[in-house]
Amino acid sequence: MKTIIKSLFFALSVSVLTSFAALAEGNPERPATAASFKSGVYTTTQGKLSIALDKQTGGTVDVRLKNSEGAIVYSKRLSKNESTCRMRLDMSELPDGAYQLEITNGVEMTKQNVTLSTKKPTMPSRLVAVN
């Protein structure tokens, strides 16, 4: 009888500890507090991508640039204490194609589509010669 009570008590204590551990872990992907943010994205005449980001302190914000296959080609995390960030990405080394800029605080996400294409040089259609 004592061994049955001990085994039941042991099983109950293991299940309670497992439950508490699962509740304590929570969802690591979702932040406890999300900082609201405003962003502006534009291109420069030099072919660079400028990103202006203003956010509240107290939460992190992630900036990611993904290629058409979903691979991350650039990533930056703004810390809880940062409130503004201005960055300029040099896109000259990236191949032509479709990219997506994602800015997220873990709850809200802003997506911007970016297309890179290189103009092909054109040859003059007429030749002027002096004899």
Q: How are the strands of the largest sheet arranged?
A: 4-3-6-7
Shape: elongated
- End-to-end span in angstroms? 118 Å
- The share of residues in extended strands comes to 35-45%
| Cα-atom radius of gyration | 27 Å
- Helix-strand pattern, N to C? HEEEEEEE
Tell me the helix content: 10-25%
The main β sheet shows up as: 4 strands, antiparallel
Topology:
Elements: H1 2-25, E1 37-43, E2 48-55, E3 61-67, E4 72-78, E5 84-90, E6 97-104, E7 109-116
Antiparallel strand pairs: 1-2, 2-5, 3-4, 3-6, 6-7
Tell me what the structure shows:
It comes from Spirosoma liriopis. InterPro entries: Secre_tail. Residues 46-110 form the Secretion system C-terminal sorting domain. With 131 residues, the chain is an alpha+beta fold. Helices cover 18% and strands 40% of the residues. It contains 1 helix and 7 strands. The protein has one helix at residues 2-25; strands at residues 37-43, 48-55, 61-67, 72-78, 84-90, 97-104, 109-116. The strands form 2 sheets. The chain has a 4-stranded antiparallel sheet, with no helix packed on it. The protein has a 3-stranded antiparallel sheet with strand order 1-2-5, with no helix packed on it. The longest helix is centred in the N-terminal third of the chain and has 24 residues, at 2-25. The chain is elongated.
